[in-house]
Amino acid sequence: MHATLLGILGLALLGALHAQDGVPVQTDFQQDKLTGRWYSIGLASNSNWFKEKKHLMKMCTTVISATADGNLEVTSTYPKGDQCEKRNSLYTKTEQPGRFSYTSPRWGSKHDIRVVETNYEEYALVATQISKSTGSSTMVLLYSRTKELSPERLERFTQFSREQGLTDEEILILPQTGERLEGRG
CA dihedral in degrees (32, 33, 35, 36; nearest 10)? Predict the structure, then answer.
């Protein structure tokens, strides 16, 4: 019985690791083309904070810039009540182009971030596996250079999120916000 349980747990762990490794990264990723302003159009996650805050979420702006050592500085400005709040994150490059790591100083969570696909001028699909002491979660972001994307891109985001094991209740197309987020926040 004990050996069977260990075998099942081992297979489950192997499956989880394989699923994470199965997340593709953009072929011939060109980091310099990813920099600039993006809008968060879609967000999908199976984390508890997402389930609790989903009804409050709105589109935000994100500015991605390269650091001197080749990492990415990611600054997101999002509405919180009647104010704008900024959050800065440093995505550290890995040996695989298009894949980054980030550790949250606030929560201690470790993030495995992958640029799954992008054409750099219109949209970017980004998948993140988040690990912390209480467990792991998956997050998928859809970025756009403009506040609107074609139905085909929105459907691709939804489809990819489902492929990552997320349910329709965990997938959100973010409502647009006012012009105050255009960098004046």
Answer: 140
Respond yes or no: is residue 60 known to be catalytic: yes
Looking at every residue in the chain, the average pLDDT score rounds to 86
Name the active-site residue from 34, 60, 141, 174. 60
Q: Are 86 and 185 contacting, i.e. CB atoms less than 8 angstroms apart?
A: yes
**pLDDT tens digits for range 105-157:** 988 999 999 999 999 999 999 999 999 988 999 999 999 999 999 999 999 99
* Domain coordinates in residue numbering, the chain: 31-173
32-53: average pLDDT: 95
Inform me whether the pLDDT recorded for 14 exceeds 50.
Answer: no
CA pair distance 44, 166, nearest whole angstrom: 7
- Asked if 172 and 152 count as a contact pair (C-beta separation under 8 A), the reply is no
CATH topology of domain 31-173: Lipocalin (2.40.128)
Q: How far is the CA of 168 from the CAs of 33, 157, 176, in angstroms?
A: 31, 11, 20
